[in-house]
Amino acid sequence: MSTIKVAHAHQLLSATLSKDADKILDFMNKKEIKTYKGTIFVRIKWNIPAVPKHDGWFYVENVVLTSGIADPADQNDKRNEYEGTRLQLQTTVSNAGPFGLALSNLNPIWKKAITQWSSKPGNTAIKSRKIHDLLQTHVAESNEKNPGAPIDDPIIRIKLDFKPFPKTFRPEFLAGQPRTQIFDARTAYLDDEGHTQYKLATVKDPKTGKDVLVNENNVHLFVTPGSILKVGRLLIQSVPYSQSWVSMPIVGTRLVIEPGAPAGFDEDFAEISDIIERTQGVAVTPAPTSPATDEPSSNVSGEDLDAVLDAI
After folding, report:
1. Residue 59 has what DSSP assignment?
2. Which of 13, 82, 99, 285 lies 20 to 30 A from 207 at CA?
3. Which of 166, 159, 181 shows the shortest CA–CA distance to 240?
4. What is residue 223's DSSP assignment?
5. Burial of 66 per CB tally in 10 Å (0-12, 13-18, 19+)
6. Residue 287's pLDDT is what?
């Protein structure tokens, strides 16, 4: 059976701080490039010294989520315009621990690396496309109050996709499995080998009152403001070249989440001490929620984001 090598967030952070930080990212040759629904996908070659032959899988823990998932029935929430902008976890650099710091350091490395690679003869050219930041550092230009203003605590978004990995996906044991699986951190138990395991998350079906597994239609009932990503496995494996953008999306695969306040109640982020306590000493700072109009994904069409997830 194939074994996936997973880099811990602190290993990625260490790599971004090393003298060879500019060598962390490279990209595959033309034979590895794929096209799906008009979007070109380039495979990432990671170079993290502590994890040889790393293929884009990352481990994070104790990440405080600063907003819940959009309720698909809320027509006023602009995140619902596309599936790709609705199904995402949101946090900030200060609330994401080593992973947040690593992404902040990696952002300029990513932009330089993809620019240099794209300029080489035979590689996919950027042309008029814009390079998408790994995190949102500025308010959207469309914001009426503070267009383009810098964000003190940059926002990180992790995509969710409940569709299965394709049959051709490697390693083979993941083929056909859901790309995103959400587990309930409150259900921890030890298996026969003494390893901590979790049960798949469930919610009450509003129509029947029965417990049902969390899926793309009801995930907003489980991932509510103040939730904590206790343990997460993320995938950063390909770079899509859409008509307008070049990006490096982060996809959540195995996510162990402790839900926050029940859906329907506003979380008071001024009273975040209980969240800090639940993160077992991880330092966090309250972050204001951003209006829906501030979504950085508004710069990338929902179709582009959906294509990204479908092609992985």
Report:
1. E
2. 82
3. 159
4. S
5. buried
6. 37
pLDDT of res. 18: 96
What separation in angstroms does the CA of 29 have from each of 13, 57, 156, 174, 244?
26, 20, 29, 25, 22
- The two three-digit tokens of residue 50, written as one number: 């502590």
- CA nearest neighbour of 166 among 154, 175, 153: 175
Rounding to the nearest 10 degrees, give the CA dihedral for residues 220, 225, 226, 231. 30
Tokens 């490039």 correspond to what residue? 33
Is residue 118 within 8 A of residue 31, CB to CB? The reply is no
**Residue located via tokens 């600063």:** 66
Render the burial of 216-229: b for 16+ CB within 10 Å, e for the rest: bebbbbbbbbbbbb
Residues paired with 138 in a beta bridge: 150
Reference 39, options 312, 308, 309; nearest CA is 308
For residue 66, what is the DSSP state? Answer: S
Question: For position 31, what pLDDT does the model report?
Answer: 60
Contacting residues for 140 by C-beta, under 8 A, at least 6 apart: 147, 148, 293, 294, 295, 296, 298, 299
Q: How many residues does the chain have?
A: 312
> Phi/psi zone of residue 40: left (φ > 0), alpha (ψ -120 to 50 degrees), beta?
beta
How far apart are alpha carbons 286 and 273 in whole angstroms? 9
The tens digit of pLDDT for each residue in 91-118 reads: 999 999 999 999 999 999 999 999 999 9
Nearest Cα neighbor of 131 from 249, 258, 49 is: 249
Residue 160: predicted pLDDT: 95
pTM of the model: 0.81
Give residue 262's pLDDT. 56
Contact indicator for 289, 269 with CB cutoff of 8 Å: yes
Residue 48 pairs in a beta bridge with 51
What SS3 class is residue 91? Answer: strand
Q: Which two tokens stand for residue 1?
A: 């059976």
| 3-state DSSP assignment of residue 176 | coil
